[in-house]
Write a structure and sequence with these properties.
Elements: H1 12-20, H2 28-67, H3 73-110, H4 128-135, H5 138-165, H6 169-173, H7 177-218, H8 222-233, H9 236-257, E1 263-266, E2 271-276, E3 286-292, H10 294-305, E4 309-312, H11 314-323, E5 328-329, H12 335-354
Parallel strand pairs: 1-4
Antiparallel strand pairs: 1-2, 2-3, 3-5
């Protein structure tokens, strides 16, 4: 029943917790196709070099065998081992490139997740019942159907490729070995391209499916989100961060109101209070912003940039700062001094318009 109630997307905390457990999203098909394409490209680019190196080693070792009159089984084994070693050394750059690509693609998908939880012993991993459940799960069924489809497509591509080659087999046998090998290589390359294109399509679909399945596993119930929020609220560090964020938001909103003010009353350096008064809307002048020290300087800077008049009145600035909060009307005791300042503001505006 709980599964059906999981209607909410995972929270950032839930995602972090899952990563700590070693749970991340990745598509193995994407890894496979990248390694396959890179390996095929590397073979196409370096195949000639590998073949030449192998041929040279083969000729050298065969010459060694021919020169040795007492050819024995240990010597043959030794020669064969040297041939395999030479071939592996020639192919090593391709192997290393494919391994590096596999690691990088895995790391990019999991954001290079390294978790000790993955290597810890857990009893449910060897549970017979849990194993049976995994075998009959939707995920296993999808993987089985996908594997069967992949095998069927590979067989179909190879079968049709060989069938198309059969009519020209007599012609291939009648030409030199170089031409025959080139023809076979081209046909084989065409088949590999078709298989790669199919696997690219499968990888794209698998990537989307794995992403969807991972998100579904992370889904939460409304109650889980509420419980998580309560738990986070109890964390002093989280509470302090929330308060700090709220303080910054409130401060930004307050600063945004400064350009709407009619005047900023200031103590020369320590206090600044921005006042707004609209006779048709306000019952009294409204404090839209106030600050001390660095915040006061910021209010004054914004006021100057936006053409808001600044009036210096040390006792009034200090009293307004201490007794009136932001977005509150001034008390009646401040009506007279504030009215005098507003009258000065209106005179200044008239003089500016005349000028």
């Amino acid at each position: 029943m709980a599964e059906t109630n999981r209607t909410e997307k995972a929270t950032p905390k839930k995602r972090r917790d899952e990563r700590k457990k070693g749970n991340s999203f990745q598509s193995k098909d994407v890894i496979s196709i990248v390694v396959l394409l890179l390996g095929f490209y590397a073979i196409r680019r370096m195949g000639g070099f590998i073949a030449k190196q192998t041929e040279q080693q083969f000729v050298s070792l065969m010459s060694r065998a021919i020169r040795n009159p007492g050819l024995s089984i240990p010597l043959c084994v030794d020669i064969f081992g040297d041939m395999v070693k030479a071939y592996m050394l020639s192919a090593m750059p391709i192997v290393l490139a494919c391994m590096t690509a596999g690691v990088l693609v895995t790391g990019i998908q999991t954001r290079f997740l390294v978790s000790g939880e993955l290597i810890k012993f857990k009893g449910n991993r060897i549970s017979l019942i849990a194993g049976i459940k995994r075998m009959v799960s939707l995920r296993s069924t999808v993987q089985l159907l996908k594997s069967m489809l992949e095998i069927a497509v590979i067989i179909w591509v190879i079968t049709t490729g060989v069938r198309d080659m059969l009519p020209v087999v007599p012609d291939i046998l009648s030409v030199d070995i170089g031409t025959s090998l080139a023809f076979m290589m081209n046909r084989t390359t065409a088949m590999v391209y078709k298989i790669c294109l199919f696997f690219v399509a499968v990888a794209v679909m698998d990537f989307g499916y794995q992403r969807y399945e991972y998100e579904q596993k992370l889904m939460m119930t409304k109650q889980e989100i509420k419980d998580e929020y309560k738990q986070m609220e109890g964390d002093p560090l989280i509470r302090s961060r929330i308060r700090e964020r709220q303080r910054k938001l409130s401060l930004n909103r307050m600063i945004q109101q400064v350009p709407e003010a009619d005047v900023v009353v200031r103590n020369p350096t320590h206090y600044a209070v921005a006042l707004k008064y609209r006779a048709e809307e306000d019952a009294a002048p409204l404090v839209v912003a106030k600050g001390q020290d660095s915040l006061a300087r910021r209010i004054l800077d914004v006021a100057e940039k936006n053409g808001v008049l600044i009036a210096e009145n040390k006792p009034l600035a200090q009293s307004l700062y201490r007794n009136v909060d932001v977005n509150e009307y001034i008390p009646e005791e401040f009506f007279r001094p504030v009215a005098e300042i507003l009258a000065w503001v209106y005179r200044q505006r008239k003089e500016r318009r005349r000028a």
